[in-house]
């Protein structure tokens, strides 16, 4: 499990740990990890050139101490001091090691360095960059029109300027890193979009914080977590004990969506799949999936993918069964908040909106949801009193109690028509096996992304490729 903590949680843990250590020991651990990560990126020391952009806080102190270690290894290190007052011990260490420093006077370098280390601000930073910091960054790590750079940027702890606890980006400038070296635990911004792409690859340095940290509210499941949650048929299993998933999706207008939701549901995780809906879709489902049957009892429903104006009726019929259900696409438009069966009892559900659909659910603008995904996913989970899976490059699975699981699997090629229909079917199958909605949504989106990566191999895919690859991913997890 990759855990992401907030600034306050990190500071409390740091205080508890620091009280057991000599002064400055934690910063030394952080700076050493940072320096070795930079050396790895440089591929050597002699002849390499590193510039440190140094702000007023301990984040700049990390950069200066790492710079001292790099200078002792033979790297040419120059610190650009962006504040009158920088970390005094760090600066003394850099100077003692033979590193140079200068203030920022608006003039850039004669020759660009190999790596720029962003020690402008860390978890103590306010959003955005001050004009001097933005100007120094542009001078030492210039970007062309496509955003390409001749210099690699390593962020200390977090890319300066991003909102650490929310994953939001500021209105103005922020650092865009190739590598972020963080300490003790991940921060929310490392996992949550739109900030997470600004982090580049994230490298975690263990500084001993672990025992002092509380359980994280924001986590990303890893392969071993997913393997532990996967349903496995017991020796005495038969198709009904493994769970039956029903699909009410697709329409005369969008028959393919019904087929794809069935393909996701028919990944082999549940014991049986039923399709209930448009007769023309049913004929095509039977052709493509001869094992799929019609009306009967189910342990879960997937409703709405590719639906038409009958999606509301399909949702009501599914809710009446009072089994767990996935509510997707068109069916989302017919939901009441909170999600309840007709008799008022609560029904375990997973809502699977994309940003536009989540915006409609909450009566806000799509752009607002995209800019503040964590907050809006949590708000929807609370308002609808159910699990919400907000689809995107890093999908979020939000529980009404505030916990969030971020999905980090899947290539950009997964942004393809019908991928969401496959996901809805897959999560429905996991619900049928007995996983609770929070687990089913998180495991389903992890498998969906991993299957896309497996199918893609770096190239283009279509949605049915993803469904076809789920079995292979499950096999490798079980191996
Ligand atoms: N916690 C841990 O376990 C460990 C933490 N460690 C390290 O400490 C870091 C946190 O250090 P920190 O608390 O000193 O704050 P930090 O982020 O350096 O800067 C805050 C200062 O910057 C300023 N400032 C604010 N916003 C600004 C802006 N937009 N643009 C420009 N300036 C801005 C503001 O000053 P002001 O402008 O208000 O005068 C404020 O004083 C952490 O990220 C990690 O790297 C490791 O060493 C060891 C283990
Ligand atoms: K930083």
From TrEMBL:
The residues listed in the UniProt record as binding K(+), with positions renumbered to this chain, are: 59, 118, 160
> Residues in domain YjeF N-terminal?
1-215
| Cofactor binding note of this UniProt entry | Binds 1 potassium ion per subunit.
What EC number(s) does the entry state?
4.2.1.136, 5.1.99.6
Question: Which residues of the sequence carry a binding annotation for AMP?
Answer: 391-395, 420
**The organism sits in which domain of life?**
Bacteria
Q: Where does (6S)-NADPHX bind?
A: 58-62, 122-128, 157, 257, 306, 354, 421
Q: Name one Pfam family in it.
A: Carb_kinase
Q: Which reactions are catalysed by this chain?
A: (6S)-NADPHX + ADP = AMP + phosphate + NADPH + H(+); (6S)-NADHX + ADP = AMP + phosphate + NADH + H(+); (6R)-NADPHX = (6S)-NADPHX; (6R)-NADHX = (6S)-NADHX
Record-annotated YjeF C-terminal domain positions? 222-477
Keywords of the record? ATP-binding, Isomerase, Lyase, Metal-binding, Multifunctional enzyme, NAD, NADP, Nucleotide-binding, Potassium
Q: Does the keyword Cell inner membrane apply?
A: no
SUPFAM superfamilies in alphabetical order: Ribokinase-like, YjeF N-terminal domain-like
| Cofactors named for this entry | K(+); Mg(2+)
Quick check: keyword Oxidoreductase in the entry? no
Which Gene3D superfamilies does UniProt cross-reference here? 3.40.1190.20, YjeF N-terminal domain (3.40.50.10260)
Q: Which residues form the signal peptide?
A: none
Function as written in the Swiss-Prot or TrEMBL entry: Catalyzes the epimerization of the S- and R-forms of NAD(P)HX, a damaged form of NAD(P)H that is a result of enzymatic or heat-dependent hydration. This is a prerequisite for the S-specific NAD(P)H-hydrate dehydratase to allow the repair of both epimers of NAD(P)HX. Catalyzes the dehydration of the S-form of NAD(P)HX at the expense of ADP, which is converted to AMP. Together with NAD(P)HX epimerase, which catalyzes the epimerization of the S- and R-forms, the enzyme allows the repair of both epimers of NAD(P)HX, a damaged form of NAD(P)H that is a result of enzymatic or heat-dependent hydration.
Family the UniProt entry places it in: In the N-terminal section; belongs to the NnrE/AIBP family.
Assembly, per entry: Homotetramer.
- Protein name, UniProt field: Bifunctional NAD(P)H-hydrate repair enzyme
Which organism encodes this protein?
Answer: Nocardioides imazamoxiresistens
Query: What is the gene called?
Result: nnrD
